Amino acid sequence: MDSLNRHEDYGQAALDEAHLVADPIEQFKTWLIEAEAAQIYEPNAFVLATIDAENQSRARTVLLKGVDHRGFFFATNYLSRKGEAVAANPSVSAVFGWYSMYRQVLIQGVAEKVQSTESDEYFASRPHESQVAAWSSHQSQPIENRAALDAQFTEALAKFSNTDVPRPDYWGGYRIIPTRIEFWKGRSNRMHDRIEYVREVNADGQPGEWKVQRLQP
Ligand SMILES: Cc1cc2nc3c(=O)[nH]c(=O)nc-3n(C[C@H](O)[C@H](O)[C@H](O)COP(=O)(O)O)c2cc1C
User: Fold this and answer.
1) Could you report the average pLDDT of every consecutive run of 10 residues in the chain (217 residues)?
2) 4 C-alpha to center of ligand 1: Å?
3) For a Cys-Cys bond, which of 51, 69, 80, 84 suits 139, CB 3.0-4.6 Å?
4) DSSP bridge pairs for 207
């Protein structure tokens, strides 16, 4: 486990306020495209942290499936542990760790279920087997063994062999509506760059402008 004692130099390439765009979503898209170009494995994977009804935190990886001015879209089972947690407490955070680029993006926000039509549209775009899997796994529920899980999948495959697979109503999308987005760039001597965008709230309670501030590393 050599990595535990390694002290890597993260280089001098800077993250400069002057080079960032005013809209953090646009900035995020630029970094995602750069992560793709750098051939990061699963560049759209992020760690999603939730807090459940018992105030217990839990984090797990999910895949980003859309990003636009409204926020960050991912899909899952609404009855999973994360689904139950979001129902109890919509505050979530997300971490994109593009470590080989010495980059990290941290997002704080509120997760909202998307409209069912948007979930339908996304579900319809998925491969047939992935659609069947949504029917054959009660995500986060215990099961006695692998054979039982495989049997559930085989049964669902047979059921939907000659037909379109409808979206189960317990499966769909969430959008993280961001309130803070931090861009982190590793620098030499642990003097890293951290630029945080914080969304102001207008007098009418609606989201306002993004304010930018530099944080100490
Ligand atoms: C690279 C990667 C991508 C994943 N993408 C998703 C995803 O998009 N949606 C999902 O529900 N689970 C995804 N998972 C599985 C989750 O990490 C997790 O095991 C599952 O959602 C159940 O989490 P929960 O019990 O906390 O709800 C992914 C796992 C990995 C390692």
Assistant:
1) 84 84 96 97 98 98 97 98 98 97 97 98 97 96 97 96 95 98 94 96 92 96
2) 26
3) 80
4) 201
